[in-house]
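stage 2 :: seqdesign
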């Protein structure tokens, strides 16, 4: 077998750790090529040219993985390599969803006793995501986090940013359509569409959530301030939501129309839009995870 390694040196990785990871996996491969990212878009370009490799090892955080996914989706399905994810970022949310160790060398050891697991991909307009799509509070919190705070505090920085946004959250109007039917219309404080089971290192605790069932979890709430905090705490502790303000649906495709242009967060990457066309592409990518099939 051969492998392509895409490594992001700025996402917490460094030469010593990279050497330890390669030493851990080198016995698995007859050939290993290592490409290091130096600027935004490098991981996308490297992944786009990865067709024909057996394995693609990604050493980096959620942002690096996001670029890799978008690059791989430009490769013909039959030529796409299997992905070995080596966490090297701040939150590493999709690695957590795959139940991978967040310590890089430990994650590399998984490859020696791994099996292939198919994973759904979310198509969002003209881009792709694995973990989540957020609008409102969720997008605002990740966008407002201070880069220095993110580097020094890690996932705690995301939590502090979210608490700040609770005080400033403004409802926005949206319409959600599925198969030509309007399933919701009105103001919400946030919209969460999830394929993975973690957000900012925190488990979503949505019991029906799966990364390869052909569906995403769609959650929105019109509550703000303390009622919203109460709802989120109830969700974390597994309590039933007693409020009509909290809505949880499962969908495999939907159209979200926003009354005003909003910041959209897809796996930590941001853009502005007034409409989102979202489709679940079932089992489009394959990841290497712990254990035998």
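stage 2 :: out
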């Amino acid at each position: 077998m051969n492998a392509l390694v895409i490594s992001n040196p700025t996402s917490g990785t460094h030469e010593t750790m990279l050497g330890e990871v390669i030493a851990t996996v080198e016995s698995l491969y007859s050939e290993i090529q290592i490409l290091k990212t130096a600027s935004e878009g490098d991981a996308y370009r490297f992944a786009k040219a990865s067709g024909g490799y057996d394995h693609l090892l990604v050493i980096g955080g959620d942002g690096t993985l996001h670029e890799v996914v978008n690059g791989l989706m430009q490769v013909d399905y039959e030529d796409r390599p299997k992905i070995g994810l080596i966490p090297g970022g701040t939150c590493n949310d999709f690695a957590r969803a795959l139940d991978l160790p967040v310590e890089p060398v430990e994650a590399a050891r998984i490859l020696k006793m791994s099996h292939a697991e198919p994973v759904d991909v979310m198509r969002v307009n003209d881009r792709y995501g694995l973990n989540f799509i957020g609008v409102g509070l969720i997008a605002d919190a990740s966008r407002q986090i201070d880069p220095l705070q993110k580097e020094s505090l890690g996932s705690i920085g995301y939590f502090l940013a979210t608490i700040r946004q609770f005080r400033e959250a403004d409802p926005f109007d949206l319409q959600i359509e599925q198969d030509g039917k309007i399933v919701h219309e009105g103001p919400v404080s946030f919209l969460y569409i999830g394929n993975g089971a973690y957000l900012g290192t925190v488990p979503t605790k949505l019991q029906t959530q799966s990364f390869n069932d052909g569906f995403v979890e769609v959650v929105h709430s019109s509550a703000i301030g303390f009622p919203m905090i109460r709802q989120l705490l109830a969700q974390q502790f597994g309590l039933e939501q007693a409020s009509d303000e909290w809505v949880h649906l499962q969908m495999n495709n939907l159209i979200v129309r926003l009354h005003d242009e909003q910041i959209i967060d897809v796996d930590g990457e941001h853009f502005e839009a007034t409409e989102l066309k979202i489709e679940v592409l079932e089992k489009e990518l394959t990841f290497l995870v712990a254990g035998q099939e």
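stage 3 :: structure notes
- The two ends are 19 Å apart (CA to CA).
- The mean pLDDT is 86.
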